[in-house]
Specification:
The protein is mainly beta. Helix content is 10%, strand content 37%. The protein has helices at 124-137, 143-152, 192-197, 349-352; strands spanning 47-53, 56-61, 66-69, 77-78, 88-93, 99-103, 108-111, 119-122, 158-165, 168-173, 178-181, 189-190, 203-209, 212-217, 222-226, 233-234, 243-250, 253-258, 263-266, 274-275, 284-289, 295-299, 304-307, 315-317, 325-330, 336-340, 343-347. α1 runs antiparallel to α2 (143-152).
């Protein structure tokens, strides 16, 4: 089966990528069993996501690259051990030591030492089997999709991971794959509700909201679930194109953003939406809330857009470089560091006030 419209994190280059996952040739290395190769170019290659592990910065990207910085991004080094060479698309930490990275072929990696060393905790083979078994157990009408996915093997990427405190995390990705853990990843439980509710559409963004989670994805999909991804409540959507992410705008506010410069804000947890004022038709690929309450979006050219009114309107700002951006993280000095097609670029704090 040839699957289309997969992305690397928040859609490198700002548009959905056309990707197929052919079976591995007999003599080809298995990227789930081949470790990441040390490379001087790792910090300037395509990086998909970035997050804090305590005061340390951890960024992940192509070929299983994981790079670390202990000086606010001034210098970088590769992690000591990463057991896979798949593209990694998301990373999060519950504290300075314990975290996860996710990526292509259904890979979920765990670290217990702040990103220095990683273990493969879960993969697409297990994910497909677990989804299939869960669908059969609930006697779902979609069980035949699970059987097809088992036949396809480990060809579905996870696209986002969100740490939820203690030993909890949530993972979402292609074709409605959604999993949670409450025991540090000892068990990853598939969400039948999300798989069925999305109609196997890709899920790109996830944010905690109230006591649950709000998610966004293909074809204007906006919905909420409980923290363990049980239940599925479709939210009204103002747009039928793809959303690549969600931002928490504070006080119950949300901003959803995606294709062709479309961004929408909600002041009531997603029950109603209004389009933001933002003068671009470029796809919006990454966003983050700032310490001062402002919001930052970046489009697929690397141009930034800052909102000082809770997402109602956005004005342009510019980084020190220009390329497609995949993720954003505000540093302790107020600057925002972005990952993307050529490593890192930076937005200075004085522009963001």
């Amino acid at each position: 089966m040839n699957y289309l419209t997969l992305k690397t994190r928040n859609c490198l280059a700002g548009v959905a990528l056309l990707v197929s996952f052919p079976a591995l040739a007999n003599d080809a290395p298995d990227t789930l069993n081949q470790g990441a190769v040390e490379s001087e170019l790792a910090r300037s290659s395509m990086l998909s996501a970035i997050n804090f592990a305590g005061d340390r910065l951890v960024a992940v990207g192509v070929k299983g690259h994981v790079v670390l910085s202990d000086d606010e991004g001034e210098s970088w080094r590769q992690a000591e051990h990463v057991p896979v060479s798949v593209t990694l698309t998301g990373v999060c930490f519950n504290n300075a030591r314990d975290g996860w990275a996710v990526g292509h072929r259904g890979a979920i990696l765990r670290t217990g030492d702040g990103g220095e060393n990683w273990e493969l905790q879960y993969d697409g083979f297990k994910a497909a089997n677990d989804v299939h078994e869960a669908l059969k157990k609930t006697k779902s009408d979609d069980a035949f999709y699970g059987e097809m996915m088992v036949e396809d093997g480990a060809d579905k990427p996870f696209l986002e991971v969100r740490c939820l405190g203690e030993k909890q995390a949530a993972v979402v990705g292609a074709f409605g794959f959604a999993f949670t853990t409450t025991d540090g990843g000892g068990n990853w439980e598939p969400s039948v509700d999300v798989f069925e509710g999305t109609g196997q559409m890709h899920v790109y963004g996830i944010v905690p909201a109230g006591k649950g989670l709000v998610m966004a994805g293909e074809r204007g999909a906006l919905f909420e679930t409980s923290a363990n991804m049980s239940g599925f409540q479709q939210l009204p959507s103002p747009y039928d194109g793809t959303f690549f992410g969600l931002m928490d705008a504070g006080s119950g506010g949300l901003v959803a953003y995606g294709l062709r410069g479309h961004a929408y804000w909600s002041g009531d947890g997603g029950e109603s939406w209004r389009e933001a004022e933002l003068d671009t038709n470029r796809s919006l690929t990454a966003g983050t809330g700032l310490a001062n309450g402002n919001l930052l979006l970046v489009d697929n050219s690397g141009s930034g857009w800052v909102s000082r009114d809770n997402g109602h309107s956005f004005n342009p700002v510019f980084g020190d470089r220009s390329f497609a951006v995949t993720d954003l993280l505000q540093l302790n000095n107020g600057d925002v560091l972005a990952t993307g097609a050529r490593g890192f670029l930076r937005f200075s704090s004085f522009q963001l006030n």
